[in-house]
Amino acid sequence: MDPDVVAAVEHLHRGRLLPDQTAARLSRIARGDLVSAHTELRVALYAGVLLLTSGVGLLLKDNLARLGPLTIASAVGLAAAACFAWVARHAPRFAWGETPVDHLAFDYLLLLGVLLGSADLAYVEARFTPLGSNWPWHLLIVALVMAPIAARCDSRVVFSLSLSTFAAWRGVSTSLVETSLWRFAHVTGALRANAIGCGVLFLLLGFLMKQGERKAHFEPVATYMGWIAVLAALVSGIGTTTSEELLFTFATMATGVGVAVYAACSRRFGLLAIGLMATYIAICALFHRAQPQDALAALWYTVTSLALLAGLFVAHHRLKEPE
Amino acid sequence: MNASVVRAERHATVRRWARGCRRERLMDDVALVTIESAHPDDRRRLGPVFRSLAFFFAAFAITAAFALVMLVVKPPDSGAAVLALILGAGLWAATEGLKGPLRMADTGIEAVTALAGAAFMAGGSAYMISEVLKVRDPAGARLFALSVVVLFALTALRWGSTAGALASTLWLGLLLGQFPQTRATWVAAGLILAPLALRGSESARLAPSHRRACGAVLIMALAGLYVALHIGSWDGRILEQGSSWLFRAGRSAALPVPRAFFKVATAVVPLALLAYAIVTRRRLLLAIGLALGVVSLITLRFYVHIADLWIVLSAAGSGLIVLALCLRRWLDASAEHERAGWTARRLSGDRALIQAAEAVVTVVAATPRATAPEAPRFEGSGGRSGGGGVTSEF
Fold first, then answer.
1. Helix (H, G, I), strand (E, B), or coil: what is residue A36?
2. From CA A204, how far away is CA A226, in angstroms rounded?
3. Contacts of A115 in chain B (CB under 8 A)
């Protein structure tokens, strides 16, 4: 119950500013006489999908000898097929634009089918090795199968999974982001190049989707994942000693500024934050190349943080991010 | 909290709610404009992304400024404590200025200054208690815990800080752990605080931020009550021993209650909460009850070996999916798509935000393990990759 909203609705209704029917319904919601369990049901479905796929993951790992590989592969495949059959029955007509589905369970049973299907494929590949020494290619196959499913069923979640699986095929995982931002551990040149390559490919894909108006609402997924991959790869190369690290520092700075400017122009506030953080990390790395004393470093962080705060208010005054 | 801040908070609450209703097409544009013009906003606010950045950089600036003063002045311990107290008081004065004359709200900065002010003063008070007042443990630890409770409670009372309310209640629990019969004290505190906080979280007299702070206290009080009645915490004597390792105080005596009582309580507390939440239509209590229910089920699995883990996980996942689908169908099947005041339809909330969160969690949790980018080799024992989050070796 929200007493402020109750009072506001009653005040507006008394002043004849809200129609009777609207006021009655809004008043019921505000008083807590009508409560939605929509979010709780979604969370339950999503948690159910994650628990079930974790259980299946353990089944594939631990029960090979007891149940036999063919039984396991068939059972998981059947479960995935059942999910896809349900999805096919409830899927809306295909369109290149957004096609929202009313059924609460649609997104989750689709995700369950995709996860079970990809787990089954991975299991079959590992057990029967049809691809032989090219076993990592099954990740590419999974990614390429997921993409049309995502487009057909208009699922951003499956599209994200398709992109991240493609990146996993090239050796890029979410651990790269963690490594670059927090651990500053050694990242190999090949991995960095793969991350940049994946990032550029995702950005190109997003651009084409938007320009061609082919699932244009998926474009933010590709663009965000693309820039995160590129910037994480560049940040992972930053250091304060070698000339190669200096090169990465300048590349990060230039890319970060570019992303921030582009994001500000297109009013993409999440992207703006990513660009700003990358730029700030690069500038600070550059500052630390001069091996400043501790007090000077503390002064640097105080002044730059305050300057950034002021800059944020100026930027917000111009851009007006919605609350 | 002064009247203009309270009025601004009330207006912001109504505006935000109206926008949520408009998104769900529960009202038209005319009604939205009418509500927004009747509840004008006179505050400087930032959107969620700018607010997060402002919070981060403000916290960074305050920490760096304190480090700078310490490095330049190089004060002795007593000087550092005095500096911390002065900085804390200065930050609280800044919070007053930001929320008052500068009319800032939801910028992230005023939240940082209020919390950092309390933290610095708590740090300074720790030194003062042990070195100036010469109060030794356990009395010193109790006094320090009490000072933290009071300082963070002040941030909640003066500026409606939810984080302050959380921290204050947490430290109240630690403080109560310093006295005999910790478990009984926690149960009593939970039983007293929870109804008070519940009433506060819905009180029309309180400002919206104070209501949210009461909600935070409610969560902590019920969590504390559950911990005190939980079979695992009883078997491990967690509360009885916890006080001794935290503040080097003496061990608290165990309650003369049979073990069966805690077994029953572990099952009954979440169920009772769920039943009360469903009957009285309170979503916060429903969420707490569900979370505690999950903990109780995990506890059951820990104590009773029902089946292999994969069976438990698969059954729990399937059960959750089936239960959610049945509930949705049952709620939606009635004439008005509602039963006893509950509906499965969306009434407000940001759908895009939920979808984005689901996408992030799915990518992090369910993406197959990456293959090595250089010279991939076949592994005779089976691949290390897998779909659907499967990363095991076969």
1. strand
2. 9
3. 366, 387-389
Report pLDDT for A210.
94
Which of B13, B323, B392 is the closest to A4 by Cβ?
B13
DSSP secondary structure code for residue B341 in this structure: T
Please answer yes or no on whether B281 and A35 come within 8 Å at the CB atom: yes
pTM of the shown model: 0.85
Do residues A223 and A262 touch, judged by C-beta distance below 8 A?
A: no
Q: Check if the beta carbon of residue B167 is closer than 8 Å to that of residue B122.
A: no
- Residue A170 at interface with chain B, using a CB cutoff of 8 Å: yes
pLDDT digits (tens, 9 = 90+) for B4-45: 999 999 999 999 888 888 887 777 888 888 888 888 888 988
A294/B376 Cβ within 8 A: no
Q: A217 CB near a chain B CB, below 8 Å?
A: no
Q: How far apart are CA B54 and CA A306, in angstroms?
A: 10
HSE toward the beta carbon, residue A73, CA cutoff 13 A: 12
What's the confidence (pLDDT) of residue B371? 65
Instruction: Say what the ipTM of the complex is.
Output: 0.83
Buried b (16+ CB within 10 A) or exposed e, B125-152: bbbbbbeeeebeebebbbbbbbbbbbbb
**Cβ of A47 and B109 within 8 Å?**
no
Where along chain A do its domains lie?
A: 1-34, 42-169
The encoded tokens of residue B197 equal 């906080």
Measure the CA–CA gap between A237 and A246, rounded to whole angstroms: 9
Q: Can you give the residue ranges of every domain in chain B?
A: 1-42, 308-349, 356-369+382-394
Q: Do B371 and A171 touch (CB under 8 A)?
A: yes
Chain B residues with CB-CB distance to A283 below 8 A: none
Interchain contact A40–B (C-beta under 8 A): yes
Which run of H or of E encompasses A35?
A: strand A35-36
In this complex, do B50 and A39 lie within 8 Å of one another by their Cβ atoms?
A: no
Q: Do A35 and B313 touch (CB under 8 A)?
A: no
Check: CB of residue B117 under 8 Å from CB of residue B95.
Answer: yes
Mutation site for B-interface testing, chosen from A21, A28, A31, A35 by largest number of B Cβ within 10 Å: A35
